[in-house]
Amino acid sequence: MQSDDELIRSVLAGCRESFDPLVRRYEASVLASAAAVLGDLEAARDASQEAFLVAYRKLGSLRRPEAFGWWVGRIAKRQALSHLRQCKREPQGPHVEEPALPAGGDGRQALSEDHDRLLAAVARLPEQDRAVLTMRYFDGLKLEEIAKATGKGIGTISKQLSRSHKRLREMLGDNP
Q1: What angle do the packed helices 41-57 and 68-87 form, to 10 degrees?
Q2: 119: domain CATH number?
Q3: Is the pLDDT at 148 greater than 80, yes or no?
Q4: Percent of the chain clearing pLDDT 90 (strictly above)
Q5: CB-based burial of residue 101 (10 Å sphere; 0-12 exposed, 13-18 middle, 19+ buried)?
Q6: Which of 37, 113, 121, 123 is paired with 77 by a 20 to 30 Å CA distance?
C-alpha cells in the first residue's frame, strides 16, 4: 500500500488515478466530518464529494502530505458550513438523527443501517474524540501517525482513543 505522500507526489506529477486510493482511504472520515456539521447523511455525502474536488484542485498547496486526512476533513467541514449558509439552516452539530434499525429484512440493509447509525454516533462525539477515532479507524492511521499529524504525544492519543471508545459505547448502548 502506497503512503499518502507517495500518492500525492504521483497526483502532482500528473497521474490523476493516484487520487482514487486517497479518496477510498479517507471517504468515511470525511463523511463523518461533514455529517457532524450537517446532521444529514445525504447532504454530508454531497459536501464530502465537494471536499474531495477542492482537495484535488488545491493539492499542490498541502505542505505536509502526512496530514492529508486531517486537511481534507477540514475542507469537508468548511464545505458543510458553506452548504448550511446556502440553505440558511442552523448547524445540527451533536443532534444528528440516527436512522431507525430495521425490524427485519436482508442482512445488507441491516449492515448499511448499522453503518449509518455508527457514523451518526461518531458525528455526535466532541470534535477531538471524533478526530482521533476517524484517523485511527476510518483512515487506518497508527497511533504514531496520529500523534505526528496532531502534534500530540502517543500517550495523549491513546488516552483520548480510550475515552472516545467509552463515549461511543455509551451512545450506542453497548455498555459492558
Answers
A1: 120
A2: 1.10.1740.10
A3: no
A4: 30
A5: exposed
A6: 113
